[in-house]
Amino acid sequence: MFQKLVLASNNPGKLREFAALFTPFRIEVLPQSAFAIPEAEEPHHTFVENALAKARHAAKLSGLPALADDSGLCAPALGGEPGVHSAYYAGKDGDRATRDARNNARLLAELARHADRRAHYVCVLVLVRHADDPQPIIAEGEWHGEILTAPRGSGGFGYDPLFLVPSAHRSSAELTEEEKNAVSHRALAFARLAERLRSAL
Q: Residue of 17, 70, 98, 113 with fewest CB within 10 Å of its CB?
């Protein structure tokens, strides 16, 4: 099994989560910024297509196996939005914290006229052993909850302060990192990825 892989993301929250998830496998997760790899284009309409494009891009420029995730929040009342546009739902200007705050504000505004506040996080993971890998390992996870009317908690990132986890009666931002890593969409996708990775190797 390989000992290092590059994460096709510059998101510090994702790097932290994946580093923790890969620790038991003794695989070091390196951010693509360590190789000066620019963000890949994400022109596609599905999570899996975007994740595959990002993984191949990072593998090609680093020469290492690469892991990419494309994830987002889907609200049925909004036709699945923000969906693949979750990171830039309210525009691309500003740093990550500024965009997160603006995205959350837009989500609350869009849902204000809907009674249905159900939502689910989606995570699609794609692992390529090399840039031209003909059999990428793909895994998906979903985490179901609903959207609060105001943010709660200071942990996590993105929409976590608005995402109510019904089983915990807390927002995702109120969970500890360990609690979130045990039940999140990313954790579910990673568990499936690990299973497939063991089979493939």
A: 113
d(CA 99, CA 158): 9
Question: Which residues participate in catalysis according to the annotation?
Answer: 70
**pTM over 0.85, yes/no:** yes
Domains of the chain and CATH, by start: 4-200 (3.90.950.10)
Model confidence pLDDT, tens digit, residues 93-110 = 999 899 999 999 999 999
For residue 147, the number of C-alpha atoms closer than 13 Å in the C-beta half-sphere is: 28
Nearest alpha-carbon partner for 104 in 90, 125, 118, 119: 90
Q: What is the mean pLDDT of the chain?
A: 92
